Amino acid sequence: MKSFGAIVLVIALLVIKDVKTDSACGYAACNTGKANMINIHLVPHSHDDVGWLKTVDQYFYGLKNNVQHAGVQYILDTVVSELIKDSSRRFIQVETSFFAKWWVEQPETTKQIVTKLVNEGRLEFTGGSWSMNDEAAVNYQSVIDQYSLGLKYLEDTFGACARPRVGWQIDPFGHSREQASLYAQMGYDGEFFSRMDHNDKDARLENLSLEMVWDASESLSDAKLFTGMLYTFYYDIPGFCFDVHCGDDPIIDTNSYDNNVKSRIDDFITYAKKVAAHFRTNHIMIPFGGDFQYEDAGHNFKNMDKLIKYLNERQAQGSNFNVFYSTPSCYLNSLHESLQTWPNKTQDFFPYGSDTNSFWTGYFTSRPTQKRFERDGNHMLQVAKQLSTFANLSSDKQKEDLEYLRRIMGVMQHHDAITGTEKQHVSDDYDRLLHDAIVGAQNNAIDGLRKLTNLPTGEFESCMQLNISVCAFTKDSADNVVVTLFNPLAHTSTEYVRIPVKDESYQVTDEKGRVVASEVLPVAWQVLALEYRSNDTQHELVFKASVDKIASYFIKKVDSGDSAVKALPRKSKAALTSNKNIASNQVNMVETYDDNDSGETVVENSLVKLVIDNKTGRLKTVEMNGVSESIEQKFAVYKTQDSGAYVFRQNGDIEQVEDDVEFSVYEGALVKEVHQQVNEWISQVIRIYEGINRVEFEWLIGPIPTDDDTARETGRLKTVEMNGVSESIEQKFAVYKTQDSGAYVFRQNGDIEQVEDDVDPSASERMDPISGNYYPVTSRIALQDGNKRLAILTDRAQGGSSINNGELELMLHRRLIRDDGYGVDETLSEEKFGTPLIARGKVFLILNVADAKATAAERVEEKQIHLPYWKFFSKSSSVSSSAVPLETPDFSDFPNSVHLLTLEPFSEDEILFRVENFMDHNEGKVVSFNIRSIFDTLGGVEIRETTLDGTLALSDMKRFKFHQDGAGISPSTPEYYTASHKPLAVDKSQDDDDFSVTLKPMQIRTFIIKTQ
Fold first, then answer.
1. Domain shared by 550 and 522, yes or no
2. pLDDT score recorded for residue 971
3. Of 134, 171, 401, 819, which residue is the catalytic one?
4. Is 171 designated active site?
């Protein structure tokens, strides 16, 4: 069969090469339909998950079809074979990662045919990203990266005709306004999706508002995007699935007893009438496809050909339906030309409820360690990209290693990867892929640092287990070790560095030989007790570092008199003998409490004061930034039988862990820690660092206990109650959550704030007001009244809410006993190292006055938490006094609100340079700065500005403008958005003033620097 397919392709190529055509790609290739008819845009497509029930490779090659029958390579093979048979046929390809995997295996004849299909608009790329990303658990930086990756691949492979014009987010489990904003900034004309809360959808069906203009940013006036919801789902319409995986009747049009043309066409017209009744124009879009369909595309196209033929023949009998092959972009083009106005949308589409008791909010937290590992992958990717740029790494191996991490990070954004909604063996494969990719990219970092430092033979090893306070490089000795710190941020950053060490005496010096204050603290005994942890090192050396881009610090063993201070336990409530990190000769130095002690323990530095209740062992009060607040922090669980990887369904009220907390206090000059044991499976360390204006909570949870009929979700594991504020807090409190990508913060109260012309179900209509009021938190969540603001910043994506006034909760970990019935068909009960999953992570608390300065300060903290130093380890013997490090660019002219979002090799002689003003219109202002020195240091010859993704010149951007209802604007011709400012385009011969860049609040600008 495959040989026959090859013959067809070769013959078709010979024919096609001899036929001249006036066809064009893009909107010029669209069928515009017929006036005064209902035009049905039939969209053939296949939705191909980049991992879910099977791994990426298993899906591509068609392995393990007993799990799910799916083979993406065969889909592309047969679709191409079918498209060349009829020039009217269309197909959209969405997942660029699968296409790239297929393309590399194709012979040159097939590549020529596919190129022709793309150039004629018959094979259209839609979406264009490396994978169809989730919109709740992702960070916007990673979303931008994976779109840049996918769109650049298409541009390099096919040119401009392959550039997608619409987003196709048909399977993610809820949708964020930030995704819409990114599409607008990439120059897309619109997007389509197929999941929406069922109450919201019912209302929109009735008032013809399934399609809308999404006002996706409060700060960016041009971030408006047409957005459409599919009528049913992205699958074929009921009764008309012609795929080999389906059992619906084919269309039989021969002289046969089973001829069913009339009944089949009647049924289709009946359905089309239902659809048309809920849309505003005489154009409707009906997708024909589904998960991994078109593996034998001939079945699909043969029947769709007949459907089109016989339905259109009805026009001679007075039918007003006209059907034809189309694409989402062609459908959108028809809507744009209709000059129709549309309802306005301002909020996002979270949470997604598929029915009254199924809110898809559990996946905000599912697989918490995988969510954290994805952040580590992004961290290394930004480090490797910058170092590759600074050091001009250009070997084939270096390019391959960097590209591999880019691609695996693109896979990790998939809506069944970062979400944690895949089978366990698929999750394990994601971990394997990401680990290998990080290790490969570290080789680039090593090569770069050897050029950029005075350690030309440095090992520059990374420690991949710092999350459990383990470093292979220091497990035997930290003597004569160099710690090289790389700061991915543009601005000089100050952090406390923690290095796993033995219980010995050390001294830390900087590159100028100056002694740096440091101290040694014990690792929490609960971490030491992890069975899979090597206990060579049971302490951590802590020192404060300030780094512009790259800085090295030197560690050596010394006599105890010259060493770093050892922070001993000052106070404790517990039997200290259970804490195996405390030497026996220290026990007598500790003041202990009994259960009847009603006093308080104060832990404070120059910026932060904590009060611990001695009886309960819990946090009682926080004072910082001139604000004092009674704050009670507790852990709690939701018990459930029916939750799954996707859905959170609690049974009954939350149950707080009321056990008195055992605690020990360790006080040093640099850091003060409260080590707490909450119960058998929950512990944490509370830290405050001198000069750092936040409180750190490092939690350790697991194994979560279960029994035959009860699972537990550690829901209110981080609960904060604001007490003692004005009575008006009952009415005025609001949850501020970082919009799913981590870029925007907007007001969202516990009942879902209603916005004019914005349809959303109220909480009172929900069967489950708890899970129905959980939201994705990717960087922060906060409480605020008229005077005070309390924010919690996170180190990974999590679900969060404020169920009761004055309280916040974050769901940190989940372990379940059943599947929720939404497809994964496997219980979410992870195991690592042969034991139920134990997770460790951090959240950070900031208490401040309630004003724009407070939220601005939080944004700065977010950047440092998201992209801290990457630590590299070498031996001191690697230092060379004769080494001449390469120069790195100076970003000191950047205003405080400007972030270096991306700096990476883009092509053989090009660098992508992306900057953003990360303050919103309430927090910041328009800023300007000059990039001439950066341009020169990078060897720039000329620079041009592009859309957000980097592949379309901003001067060429022309995207559809749609008007909202009631705006008082009735255009007579279609209108378009173009660049809102003059795109930067200069070369090295021009004056320095020509290199000035201005950024509005929340604006991102992208440049391509051509180098020598």
1. yes
2. 85
3. 171
4. yes
